[in-house]
Write a structure and sequence with these properties.
This is Zf-HC2 domain-containing protein. This protein has one domain. Helices cover about 65% and strands about 0% of the residues. Helix 2 crosses helix 3. The longest helix has 17 residues. It starts with a helix and ends in a 5-residue tail after the last helix.
Length: about 100
């Protein structure tokens, strides 16, 4: 992408902070057409915001939109007995 085009997009798209807010809000309600266009244009000049969106979508998909399920959805979660053994092993031993 040419430098003048990148500069043009940088001047006419929202800042990273604003894009992050739009991405976060889009997890709760769909963004408007204008917001989607702003986000897409910003992605042309900012790989970091694009990565953020990929990560936040991944987390949202894993949780299924239900943050209360964090411990339940982990594949291969430890049994309560295993968790207790680890806690015992990590406790400081008295001398």
């Amino acid at each position: 992408m040419t430098r003048w085009f990148t500069n043009l997009l940088a001047r006419h798209t929202p800042s990273c902070k604003e894009i992050i807010q739009l991405i976060s809000n889009s997890m709760e309600r769909p963004p408007s057409l204008r917001q989607r266009l702003s986000i897409r244009l910003h992605f042309l000049i900012c790989k970091w915001c694009f990565r953020y969106q990929k990560q936040i979508r991944f987390i949202h998909n894993i949780l299924g939109g239900n943050p209360e399920k964090v411990g339940e959805t982990a594949p291969g979660a430890l049994s309560p007995e295993a968790q207790e053994r680890i806690k015992q092993a990590l406790r400081p031993k008295s001398k």
